[in-house]
Amino acid sequence: MVVEDDPDISSALVETLEGAGFRVTSARDGRQAVEVAAGDPPDLVTLDLTLPHMDGIEVCRRIRESSDCYIVIVSARSDEVDRLIGLEVGADDFVLKPFSPRELRARVAALFRRPRSAGTTDDAAASTALHVPSPSQPADEPSTISAGAGLVINSARREVQVDGAIVDLTRIEYDVLEYLATHLSRVCTREEMVLAIWSSALTHDHHLVDVHVANLRGKLRRHSDATWIHTIRGIGYRMDREGSQEDRRAGGGPYLVARIDSEDWARGLDF
Fold first, then answer.
1. Which of 152, 178, 201, 205 fits a 20 to 30 Å CA distance from 96?
2. Cα–Cα distances in Å, from 250 out to 87, 223, 242?
3. In what order do the strands lie in the sheet with 144-146?
4. Residue among 133, 112, 134, 108 at smallest CA distance from 121
5. Which residues is 73 bridged to in the sheet?
6. Is the dihedral of CA 9, 10, 12, 13 positive or negative?
7. pLDDT at 156
8. Does 239 or 250 have the greater pLDDT score?
9. How many other CB atoms sit within 10 Å of the CB of residue 86?
10. DSSP classification of residue 117
């Protein structure tokens, strides 16, 4: 679905996506977009931020409440805060106008290379997805990862539990957690995480990682005060298996480790 108020840009987006094999529906304002998405659930939404009646941020939030579709914001608003808020409410990627049709197709293709969660696929697609390993999970790795302190990641079901309670994560938040969990006790750079999770060298904004890690930490903290993910300032992140208090000592090496709350991206911290 294309959500765009400018008819020329809308036409270009429709042409680009139809050329990639999509059946495309369009909406010209925010309210219509929410109604169309509810009546005909899309697999992909391209979404402008500046829309009549309801802005793109609120549209993204409402669609995300009931849908696990891919959402790509296509906007001329280049401020970092717009990108961060869009990702915070559930967007998967952000493309600046004027956009390159080739780049947009490449970004969309990268999103669709990530397996969809079982709850949002039909039977045929789910059957196929079972044979496709996630970008961070080699095929020969065990399907369940225990990170201590009650955190269990089931890659076959793409499900995360803390002490038996399911943690509600977005698709990218899950991919970030799974990537870190399959590299326990190793420092993962932002660059390698971008390449592995977004599956495209076209995504150069490493703050994407910071935003999704912050959101992920916030959701995990609702279930436990344990700290699994550590910030390695200036480099990236490291996930450690949680155990006793002695095992939770900060640092673990010549790195500065900080516990970052989910709102820290908004405080302008230099990660």
1. 178
2. 29, 21, 12
3. 144-146, 151-154, 159-162, 165-166
4. 112
5. 47, 94
6. positive
7. 82
8. 239
9. 25
10. P
pLDDT of residue 93: 86
SS3 107: helix
Write out the two tokens for 85: 């808020």
Question: Could you tell me what percent of the chain has a pLDDT over 90?
Answer: 35
From the number of C-beta atoms within 10 Å of its C-beta (0-12, 13-18, 19+), residue 4 rates as buried
Alpha carbon separation from 232 to 50, 180, 248, 250, 271 (Å, rounded): 36, 13, 15, 11, 9
Rounded average pLDDT over 168-177: 88
Instruction: Report yes or no: 53 and 31 within 8 Å, Cβ to Cβ.
Output: yes
Which residue type does 204 have?
A: H
SS3 of residue 195 by DSSP: helix
Measured CA to CA, the distance from residue 28 to residue 48 in angstroms comes to 10
The residues pairing with 258 across neighbouring beta strands, listed in sequence order, are 231
| CB contact at 8 A, 4 and 28 | yes
Task: Determine the Cα–Cα distance for residues 173 and 156; give it in Å rounded to an integer.
Answer: 16
- Beta strands, E only, the chain: 2-3, 26-27, 44-47, 70-75, 93-96, 144-146, 151-154, 159-162, 165-166, 187-189, 229-232, 236-239, 257-258
Cis peptide before 98 (omega within 30 of 0): yes
Quote the distance between the C-alpha of residue 35 and its chain's center: 24
pTM to 2 decimal places: 0.52
